[in-house]
UniProtKB/TrEMBL annotation:
UniProt keyword list: Membrane, Transmembrane, Transmembrane helix
Lineage of source species: Eukaryota, Metazoa, Ecdysozoa, Arthropoda, Hexapoda
TM segment ranges: 20-39, 59-80, 92-114, 126-149
Protein name: MARVEL domain-containing protein
C-alpha cells in the first residue's frame, strides 16, 4: 500500500481542495492558452518537426490543450466522487507534462543563450524552473490524494486500518 507524499496542500488546505484547485487551474490556463494561440501573432515552433506549417502546429497545440481540459474535468470528477480511476489519466499525463516542461525550459534557455540573448535565457531559465517546481508540487498534491483515495477504495472506505505488528 503506497503512502501519500504530502498530507496537505500548502500546509493549510486539504489534498482534496488542492486537487480541485489544480484541475480548475489547468482548465483556466488551457482556455487562456487556446485563446492566445489563435489571437496573438506568435511563430510556434516544434523541436522535432520544424517543417510543419504554422496553422498545423497551432491546431496540434489546441488539440493538446482540449485534451488537457477533458482530463482535468475527469480528474475533478474523480476527486469529487472519490474514484481513483478517474484521476489516473491526470496523474500519468501530469508526470509526462512535468518532464516535457522541464525539457522545454532547458531547451529554450539554451537556444536563447546560443543566439546571444543572455538576459532572455536567464529569465526563461529562472521563470521556467520556478514554474516546473510549482507544477511538480501541484502534481504531488494530486498524486497524494490519488494514493489516499486508492488506499480507501482498496480496503473499503469504512473499514478499520489494517492490523500491523
Amino acid at each position: 500500500m503506497a503512502q501519500p507524499m504530502v498530507n496537505s496542500c500548502c500546509r493549510c488546505f486539504s489534498l482534496r481542495s488542492g486537487s480541485i484547485a489544480s484541475g480548475i487551474l489547468g482548465i483556466i490556463l488551457s482556455i487562456i492558452s487556446i485563446i492566445l494561440i489563435f489571437t496573438v501573432r506568435i511563430d510556434f515552433k516544434t523541436i522535432l518537426m520544424d517543417w510543419l506549417p504554422q496553422n498545423v502546429v497551432k491546431i496540434i497545440y489546441a488539440l493538446n490543450l482540449v485534451m488537457t481540459i477533458l482530463i482535468s474535468l475527469l480528474m475533478i470528477m474523480g476527486v469529487v466522487k472519490k474514484n481513483h480511476y478517474f484521476m489516473m489519466p491526470w496523474v500519468v499525463l501530469g508526470l509526462m507534462l512535468a518532464i516535457g516542461l522541464l525539457i522545454s525550459v532547458i531547451y529554450n534557455a539554451v537556444v536563447y543563450y546560443i543566439d546571444g540573448f543572455v538576459l532572455g535565457g536567464t529569465l526563461w531559465l529562472v521563470v521556467g524552473l520556478l514554474t516546473v517546481v510549482i507544477y511538480v508540487y501541484m502534481w504531488i498534491v494530486v498524486y497524494s490524494f490519488f494514493v489516499t483515495v486508492k488506499n480507501e477504495n482498496d480496503r473499503g472506505r469504512y473499514s478499520k486500518q489494517p492490523y500491523r505488528r
